[in-house]
Design goal:
220 residues; Glutaconate Coenzyme A-transferase; three-stranded mixed β-sheet; 4 helices; 14% helix
Length: 220
């Protein structure tokens, strides 16, 4: 049986096309690096200064100096390049990143994103998230649909401090896929065999249903 994380990662892989320059946020998004098929040629970029991230290293491959933005050890693909943060953010702010796949704490029905802090808890800062949601050509958020208390993370409006306003193009959860359009938030797929009614029951946000709605069975 596929876990919620498996469902999210498998669906997120469909967003990555051959030849893309992609930034993966910390958390669940970084796991995508291990799942990209070998025949799909993608350059993964990290804010700390690496273009060409490969899969997580095996034990004998670990190099403590080779890390991603989340300070996890990674590998580098053949042809990878290293640079400073200024160069890295020039790539992001200059619109050279085709796709940013980031995690989320809350996403609102108008495309607002909150993904960097919970008031009262110590945080290290926003990192590159604010730049990515404004500089990347396309922003896809992946997250679980509800929090540990069973409350919807897909909100009518965000209650946490925003990372960006109206910046999300697509939201993928373990239950559904939504697009954000001029007409509002649109349900385009239900995942894990769920119905539209199942999605409405766990979603605070208002949304319409695409006439071309796809329903993915469990395990896809």
């Amino acid at each position: 049986m596929a876990t919620s994380r498996d469902i999210i990662i498998n669906r997120a892989l469909q967003e990555i096309e051959d030849g893309m320059y992609v930034n993966l946020g910390i958390g669940i998004p970084t796991l995508i690096a291990n799942a990209i098929p070998n025949d799909r040629h993608v350059m993964l970029q990290s804010e700390n200064g690496l273009l060409g991230i490969g899969p997580y290293p095996l034990e004998h491959e670990v190099d403590a100096d080779e890390i991603n933005a989340g300070k996890e050890t990674v590998t580098a693909q053949k042809g990878a390049s290293y640079f400073d943060s200024a160069e890295s953010f020039a790539m992001i702010r200059g619109g050279h990143i085709d796709l940013a796949i980031l995690g989320g704490m809350e996403v609102a029905e108008n495309g607002d994103l909150a993904n960097w802090m919970i008031p009262g808890k110590m945080v290290k800062g926003m990192g590159g998230a604010m730049d990515l949601v404004n500089g990347a050509k396309r922003v896809v958020i992946i997250m679980e649909h509800v929090n540990k208390y069973g409350e919807s993370k897909v909100k009518s409006s965000c209650t946490l401090p925003l990372t960006g306003s109206q910046v999300v193009h697509r939201l993928i959860t373990d239950k559904a896929v939504f697009d954000f359009t001029d007409a509002g938030m649109v349900l385009i797929e239900t995942l894990a065999g769920l119905t539209v009614e199942d999605i409405r029951a766990v979603t605070e946000a208002n949304f319409t249903v695409s006439p071309e709605l796809e329903r993915m069975p469990v395990g896809e």
